[in-house]
Amino acid sequence: MRPQPLICVRDVEASSRWYQRLLDCQGEYGGHGYARLFSNGQLILQLHLWDAEHDHGPIGDESLPHGNGVLLWFEIDDFDAAVARAEEMQIEVVLPRRRNPRPNHWELWLRDPDGYTVVLASPDGSAGGS
Hints:
This protein folds into two domains: 1-53, 2,3-Dihydroxybiphenyl 1,2-Dioxygenase, domain 1 (Roll); 68-130, Signal recognition particle alu RNA binding heterodimer, srp9/1 (2-Layer Sandwich), CATH 3.30.720. 18% of the residues lie in helices and 36% in strands. The chain has helices at 12-23, 79-89; strands at 6-9, 26-29, 34-39, 42-49, 71-75, 93-100, 105-111, 117-121. The strands form two sheets. It has a four-stranded mixed sheet, with helices on one face.
């Protein structure tokens, strides 16, 4: 099993570029209002236009809080490079870089252009210390 999260966004192309730059991944457009993002050949995120109904009808209600209670969590092999990209992009920081002692990894919590919380995390055990 592989998770394939999908989020609704205001501008699929702009969000795709934002995530591609931050996560150093590749995008693939699937027609009006839809894109998929890949890392090492694996699907990591799908982006869907709020008002694109395609063949399934609307997915969400843009007037409600975006991602309330959901974190888009990405384990990043080169955490320092991802943090540097986030700084270059001047992304809003929700929680600054910190060591999470339970998995002993580094985390940086960010806000994406649509208001979703995005967490970058280094691999478990990579933060040193005890």
